[in-house]
Specification:
The chain is built from 3 helices and 6 strands. By secondary structure, it is α+β, with helices and mostly antiparallel strands. GO terms for molecular function: transferase activity.
């Protein structure tokens, strides 16, 4: 389940709605986007009537979600994730070509690959 808060919702509003959910024994994942906050509900949401949440003045709308990978789902996390790796931005609009072995058999193999990559200019 995804609870989309109104753009006017305050941190207290998000906290209040989150508490309603956690009091029912479910977990929440709050994402504060640039426009509005989204509360992802993790667990058996059959315990929750979406209409009971939607009556809150700070809630824009509630959606049931049946898709897997809720924590990585764009509906839960609409903004891009950008990670800075020693000055190199990975994610968002930034393209990063990352390569490596498909699997690692031993520490020796990792060291050998790292030495070869360094020698090649990585």
């Amino acid at each position: 389940m995804i609870i989309v808060m109104k753009t006017t919702a305050t941190a207290k509003d998000v906290e209040k709605v989150s508490k309603i959910i956690t009091d029912k024994g479910l977990r929440v994942s709050v994402v504060n986007g640039t426009e509005q906050s989204v509360i992802g509900v993790i667990g058996d949401t059959t315990k929750i009537d979406p209409r009971a949440i939607e009556v809150d003045i700070a809630v824009d709308h509630v959606m049931r979600v049946s898709e897997p990978y809720k924590l990585a789902n764009r509906a839960f996390h609409p903004d891009d994730t950008v990670v800075d790796v020693e000055g190199v931005k990975v994610g968002g609009e930034n393209l990063a070509l990352i390569a490596g072995p498909c699997s690692v058999e031993s520490e020796e193999q990792v060291i050998e690959i790292a030495k070869a990559a360094k020698k090649a200019g990585a």
